[in-house]
User: Fold Aminotransferase class I/II-fold pyridoxal phosphate-dependent enzyme from Salipiger mangrovisoli.
Amino acid sequence: MFPERFSNLPAYAFPRLRALLDSFEPGGEVIHMTIGEPKHAFPAFVGEVLAESVQEFGKYPPNEGTPELRANIAAWIARRYGVTVDPETQVTTVNGTREGLYNAGMALCPETKNGQQPAVLMPNPFYQVYAVSALSVGAEPVYVNATDATGHLPDIAGLPEDLLARTALVYLCSPANPQGAVADRAYWETLIALGEKHDFQILADECYSEIYRGEAPVGALQVATEMGADPERVVIFHSLSKRSNLPGLRSGFVAGGPESLRRIKQHRSFAGAPLPLPVQRVSERVWADEAHVVENRAHYLEKFELADRIFGNVPGYMPPRAGFFLWLPVQDGEEAALKLWKETGVRVLPGAYLSRDTEAGNPGKGYLRVALVASREETERGLTRIRDCLYGQ
Assistant:
């Protein structure tokens, strides 16, 4: 009666966390460090723009975004990555990157690849929507472990040739959620060259790209353009959730080759919901402003430095290069999260809830993901409790 395609999906991470923790009393004042929901202030002009455009809730919005919004997105891509895209044919808006990442698989994954079931590769651990998209189109999701030994990025180049031959799509998140690792130019060049050789597309989830320390992370579309790769080789996904502290706006975009975008837009015209026009008006303004992004990044830099000071002597601690999570090494993530909750009231996410078991093991089992989204003061309290409880320092 019901389909079996999703029968092997585990419970989503946060219901699993509630099942693990909620039957126990917290051991102190509760500090939430589980969800990557930005808490910094969003730009002050957001309310003004929303109020000015409130009457446009009475209109059907364009599915692909207003011309002004697509133009501002294209201008941002040019400023950020030095890449020129046509706002008419190479950009569309989406309701946050999760919707875009799911529907891109629906629009772009072929029914077969070289006469076989297509494979969709993704890092492990990973953003769980990648797997659901693959299953929805009858492809095989292949979980490629991203561990300390691989720089916390998946070693796609090390996979067997027969697997690469039937690979249709590769999801890659850089900066990585949860580890904060960044794909450098050489990594992108290798992956894009493999895509050219084996004719697969790369879906680059770059929604953490504006939270970093040091140099700005290089972009997938940027490298593909410099290489002269097939214009359809790379599709990028961005949103205003992390960049601008507007997760509730549900405003993102997809950009890539014109044929890929034609297919994505065609699919969304039937199955996607357009952003309300007042949301699009706010987005137009936010993509055009960088001052608030610089300020936001400075707040995260303070918390990166705080984490380095608190955990600097912890064996295996990896300072994140970007994003806003810590990927803390522990013996067992579930045991550590439960101990932390019962003894201190700090709530964190076991790494295994973001990854899958493979023949080589579960790469998230020995980690905790800790979100650095609260105020500096609350973050310091939470990180200090984690250190004292789990590492005895």
